[in-house]
Write a structure and sequence with these properties.
The chain is 19% helix and 34% strand. The chain has three helices and eight strands. The strands form two sheets. The chain has a five-stranded mixed β-sheet with strand order 1-2-3-4-8. A three-stranded antiparallel β-sheet has the order 5-6-7, with no helix packed on it. The two termini are 25 Å apart.
Amino acid sequence: MTTAITPPIVCNHPDDVAEVVALDSFRLQVRFCDGVEGQVDMSALVHSSHAGVFAQLADPIRFSEAYVEYGAVIWPGEIDLAPDAMYVEIKQNGKWKLE
């Protein structure tokens, strides 16, 4: 399911996330406001003993609830990913693997 920015905002920063799609195997497809696109692989992180709040996302249904708010990827329960770090990795490598 494609989820647009909620609420709609004007992208002022290249690292604002414009769109996120939850994929299988705990991956996300993201597109930034400047058109950069790539994947975030969270499979190792959500199953890690150091997952912290991200351990809640080990449930595939919960993981699929990702959406964009104010230019960041968010899940219910105030779990979010830093768009700036995600942007740098994806722009350089096309992907970001979190462990």
